[in-house]
Amino acid sequence: xxxxxxxxxxxxxxxxxxxxxxxxxxxxxxxxxxxxxxxxxxxxxxxxxxxxxxxxxxxxxxxxxxxxxxxxxxxxxxxxxxxxxxxxxxxxxxxxxxxxxxxxxxxxxxxxxxxxxxxxxxxxxxxxxxxxxxxxxxxxxxxxxxxxxxxxxxxxxxxxxxxxx
Length: 165
Known about the structure:
Layout (H helix, E strand, L loop, with lengths): L3 H4 L10 H10 L1 E5 L4 E3 L7 E7 L1 E7 L11 E8 L5 E2 L2 H4 L7 E4 L3 E7 H10 L1 H38 L1
Antiparallel strand pairs: 1-8, 2-7, 3-6, 3-8, 4-5, 4-7
Helix pairs in contact: 4-5
């Protein structure tokens, strides 16, 4: 079971009362991944989100889609380290949408999962806490979208400079 001290540090659970955290603590399932294992694969479907508690993962995305150019060309978008207890795969709680990136264990990892089914059951009984979690997810995703926008501008600028030469 995940330690309450760790649970209190997870951004997804910011603003939740200790009694609510205790309920969530009992719903989280521990999973272990070995170095090199794919935790999430891009374009697959999933119904759970993940809390990284020990280890390091990278988030990658396929650069060339629909073109067979031999070896896979993946771009590392982010490195997530457990010291800040990051979450990923939040869209698994929002529905059964396709995963937008790969998440690969860079070290052996301990991860806790929360399924859409468990979260929906929790939400029916704890509406205010569920609202707070969804607000936190919105903030997390908004921050990621902002970072993506900045990276897109950098990429477009580099492309423009390369074409001008």
